[in-house]
Specification:
This protein has about 190 residues and is α/β, with parallel strands linked by helices. The protein is built from 8 helices and 6 strands, in the order βαβαβαβαβαβααα. It has helices at about 20-30, 50-60, 75-80, 100-110, 120-125, 135-150, 150-170, 170-185, and strands at about 5-10, 35-45, 65-70, 85-90, 110-115, 130-135. The termini are far apart.
Length: about 190
């Protein structure tokens, strides 16, 4: 497991999404797990200097691969399935709801490292359904290392995350909650 592990990020290539902190964490992780690879499935913005700088750092790194563009559902699922750890290091999340990428990762049953930002801590329980950290390279790197070192913990988090999504974010559950809310309003 520790040799050739795959660490996956997917989403826009921006510092808003904390990608710069993940890129900065790569050397520390690779010093412990030199055979690991980082895969970035990223939508890039050609006119954004920060996005271009991040793109350049990833492309130049020998243990990182940048795959640009919007992925098909099938392709995204394939990448999620080969990942040993998924990292979604949001620096800021301005919306009320949890990012869909967090729920997708949990639904697929993958160990997740994400941040204490926005509504994420309402969904991800630290040490139970994922690891929550501050969006800083040291904490991100430590959390990735922890999961790569402890396959039992990674598996437990992944299983718990999957069960959580099945229980609280399935269409049946959402339909039941919606129906109950309407019934309450009509009563």
């Amino acid at each position: 497991h520790q040799d050739g592990s795959i660490i996956l990020y997917y989403g826009p290539l921006s510092s808003f999404r904390g990608v710069d902190e993940l890129v900065s964490a790569m050397p520390a992780v690779l010093s412990r797990f030199p055979s690991s690879r980082f895969i970035f499935l990223a939508r890039t913005s050609k006119g954004d200097p920060k996005s271009n700088a991040l793109k350049k750092c990833i492309i130049e790194h020998r243990r990182a691969k940048l795959i640009e563009g919007v992925q098909s559902r099938k392709s995204l699922i394939q990448y999620l399935n080969i990942a040993d750890v998924v990292v979604l290091p949001f620096r800021f999340w301005p919306y009320v709801e949890c990012p869909l990428t967090v729920l997708e990762t949990m639904a697929v049953g993958k160990p997740l490292v994400t941040t204490l930002t926005g509504a994420i801590p309402e969904i991800v329980q630290d040490g139970i359904t994922g690891l929550l950290v501050e969006p800083r390279r040291e904490e991100i790197g430590s959390a990735i290392t922890k999961l790569l070192q402890n396959e039992k913990l990674a598996s437990k988090l992944a299983q718990n995350a999957r069960k959580y999504v099945e229980r609280f974010h399935s269409w049946n559950y959402i339909a039941k909650q919606t129906r109950e809310a309407f019934q309450e309003c009509l009563a």
